[in-house]
Amino acid sequence: MERTEHAQTPADSDAVRLYARLLTDLAGPPGAPGPGWDGPRLAAATAELRALGLLQPTAAATGGHATVSVDTAVRQLLLDADQQIGALFDAVRRTRDTVERLHDGYLPVQERHRAEHPLELVRGADRIAALLEDAARGARTEALSLRPGQDASEPALAGKLARERLALAHGVAMRTVYPAAALRRPTVLAHLRELTAAGAQIRVAHTLPLWLIGIDARVAILPAPGSVHAPGSVHAAGSVHAAGSVPAAGSVHAPGSAPDPGPAPAAGADPAEAPGPQAAAAVVVREPALVAMIRELFEYFWAGAWTPPELLAGSRTPAAPEGRHHEVLRLLAAGLTDAAISRKLEVSERTVRRLVAELIADLGAESRFQAGVHAARLGRL
Fold this sequence. Notes:
The chain has 381 residues and is an alpha+beta fold. 46% of the residues lie in helices and 11% in strands. The chain has helices at 14-24, 39-52, 70-116, 125-137, 154-169, 186-198, 288-304, 323-333, 338-345, 349-362, 368-377; strands spanning 55-57, 65-67, 119-123, 142-146, 173-179, 201-205, 212-215, 219-223, 281-285. Strand 4, helix 5 and strand 5 form a beta-alpha-beta unit. The longest helix has 47 residues, at 70-116. The protein is flat and about 100 Å long. The termini are far apart.
C-alpha cells in the first residue's frame, strides 16, 4: 500500500530516521539523514527527539546534542511521572489537613454563631458586598433574587457574566427578576440575553419594591427595615443602587468596590443607571421558617413577572400577529371569553384555545392577561 505524507508509520517518521542516523554516527552532529532535508524539517525531527528524551544537550561544540537510549528515556519519563504524582499526593494531603482543621476548629464556631443569631444585621456597603459574595459563592442548588438595579458598566457586566456562567455550569438553578425598564439599556439587554443562553431564567416586572437574595433555601438577604440606602433599594421613583444587588451565585462586586455616593436620580430615571449609596444595612436571615417565607415572597413576584419577548429563543422580537391571530388578540384585549371569540370568528373553541396558546408562547407571556400587556407594550394592538 502506498504511503502518503500524512499516513506515515512510526518507522518511517523523520524523527525515527534521524534517531537511526545518530545511533550509527555518534561522533557527528545531528545532520540530515538524507537528501531533501531542509532546515525546518531537521528542526522538527530534532524537537520531537528532545520531547521524547532521546536527545540531551551537551556542551560540546560539535552539535550540542547526544543520543539517549530508549531504556534511559523511559526510566526518566517514569521518574518524572513519579515525582509529579508524589507532588500531587502531597498537595492532596495538605488540602485534607486544612479541611480537617476548618471542620474541627472553625465550623463549630460558625454553626454556634448562626444558631445564636438566626437574624443578623450587617451595616456598611463593603461588608454587605462581602456578605453577598460569600453567600453567592456558596450556592449549590439555587439562587433567587429580585434586582431593582445593577451596575450597568461593561466591565461589571462582563465580570458578573463570567461568575454566573460558572455557577450555572455547576448546576445552580438561577432565577432573577429585573425591572422591565432596565431592558432599555442595550448593554443590559445584551447581558441578559447571554445569561439566558447560559441557562439562567430571567423575568421582568413593572416595579420591584426591594432587592432580595435567596440561596439554597438556607439563607436570605434583604434590606434592613428603614434602610433607604441599602444596596439595590429604591431611592426615588424606582431608582436603585447597583452595588451588591446581585441576583445569583457569584454575581457581586468585590468588597470595597461599591460606587461613590451620588444624588438620587429624577423620577422616571433608568434603574440601570442609578447612583450608589453612602451607607447600607441588610438583614441576613437563617431561620428556616423565615427563609421559607422570604422564598414565598420571591415566588409571588416571580409569578407576577414575565419573560420579556426580547429574551425569547433566537433573541427575536415577535412579529406582529396577522390574520386570525390578530383578531383573536384584539378580542382577548377586549375581554371576550373563548366561547365568545369562537362565536365571533365562527370557529370552534378548540381552535380559539390553540390560537390563544400560540399567541401566549409567541409573546413570551405566562397568561392571557400578560399576552395582552405584552402586545400593548409592543404596539401590536
